Predict the structure.
Amino acid sequence: MTDKKIVKKRRKKRRKIKYFRIFFLLAIFLGICYFILNLGLFKISKIDVMGNKKVETEAILEKTDYLMGKSIFFTRKSTVEKSVKSIPYVDTVKVKKKFPSKVELTVEERKPSIMIPNKDKFLLIDSTGTFLEEVESFTYDLTIIEKIDLNGDPKSGDKIFDFIVDDRIDNFLELALSKSVFSYFEKLHFDEKETVIDLNNGIKVAFGSYNNMEYKLDVLQKILDDVEKDGTNATMILMEEGPYPVLVTDFEKID
């Protein structure tokens, strides 16, 4: 065996020993880290819930009970958020890790925006169309939706749009909920040909057909802004009476 081959063989052997030492030290380091991260000091022992009013704290704790005793380092915020948001009334949840062993949950709840009579009860729906719950009593501060047919019985957390039989009403409601003008709506009455809207300022809107819905909603917003600005004593708005909307006023109160 030549000297070059001997030297090459020795270098190869030393390289293997070097790699083995690095691997061995790395394994020890990782083992120590894993041991430290799993110490009882860092195991979750308390979960604080804030911001909830409608949803009971116990209901949220039930969804996060699996965290107790788990290392705070191995807790994934996205998983916790998904668990808590499975509660229909929960809109968002912020998860904070409070070292060494506490998790803090800040909940923002959904708020009902509309009420749909269904059989002998009422369905509460939020501004995104999410069905929250079924109640027996009437709530006066919500927008009432009349004459709407549903296909099946939605469950809490479902989108009500998926259950509305008439696609035109479905599209109108989904669009209207996304507009600021919806805050004026007190009652909506649907039929096959047109929509009539009672506003919370006493004005009745003959919205007309289901054509050009977004345009008409935007125009309605502008009309209402002008009515408030000018102090006009309006009683009705006819959206399809002619080429332009018609504002009807209470002539008895005009000097």
